Structures are given as structure tokens and as C-alpha cells.
Prior knowledge:
The protein is built from 5 helices and 2 strands, in the order ββααααα. It is mainly alpha-helical.
Amino acid sequence: MKVYTKTGDKGQxxxxxxxxxxxADKRLEAYGTIDELNSFLGLLRSKLHNTEDENFIFAIxxxxxxxxxxxxxxxxxxxxxxxxxxxxxxTVEKKIDQIGATLPPFKEFIVYGDNExxxxxxxxxxxxxxxxxxxxxxxxxxxxxESINIYVNRLSDYLYxxxxxxx
Length: 167
């Protein structure tokens, strides 16, 4: 099976529907960072020893495929639009609240590195924050479903709380 097409050799790639854009396009920066986050979440999931956490991270990864596909869809796309389920925001918020109820109050800044799995969660959080910045940057020039930005913002909060709980 060939994985190379040579169509991107000159610095362009195709969005959903075939529209060609520069590989430095804001849209690619946004969904590329979502892909990076998804990759790091896979690493985090592989290090977890709690089935509930593993399953929750897996569900997030599936949601991020939807987010990436939406971000890869140009505004003028004429095909069937991919939609994000905004109820996923509430699902993440509930998980944040569950973790928060088990942690002591914050008293100081956290220095990451107490253990490997907690550190990976904080790397995921930092990548989620960057993804959010890339989505906001894209939304400054093109309409983006607000629920996507909210979801990614909540993911970074969840990953922060998870990282604290995993210490």
C-alpha cells in the first residue's frame, strides 16, 4: 500500500471537498494541532491503569476526529456538513467536577514532573491550549462552530485536573 501521493510536494494539500491550500494555512494549523493532541492522548491512554479514564480519553479521541474533520472543511464546502455534538461539552464538565471534588484546594502553582503519566497529561493540556489558540486564530477570519472552541477549552481544563489527580 502506498501512503505517498506526491500531491503535497510543493507545499499544498487538499481540504475536505478537494480545495487546495497551503500547508501553512490557518485551517491546517488548527486541525494539525488537534491531530497532535489526539496523538498525545493516545500516549496518555496507553500509560493509564484505570479503565474509566482510558475509556473517557478514548471517547475524547473519537470526538477530536470529528473536530479535525470540521476544521478541515472549507467554509464554501457544498457537501454534507459534519456537526459537533455540543452535549460533549457538558460531559467533560461533569468529569472535571468529579475530579475536582476529590482534590484538595489549590494553594500554589504546580511544577509538573511528579510522575510520567501526570506529566503526559500536562503535555496534553498544553497542546490542547495551543489547539484552542489556533482555532481562535482561524475563527478570526472564518466562521467556526463556537462549540468546538468551548469543547477544546474544557478539554484543557479536564487534562489539567486529570494531571493533578494522577500525581
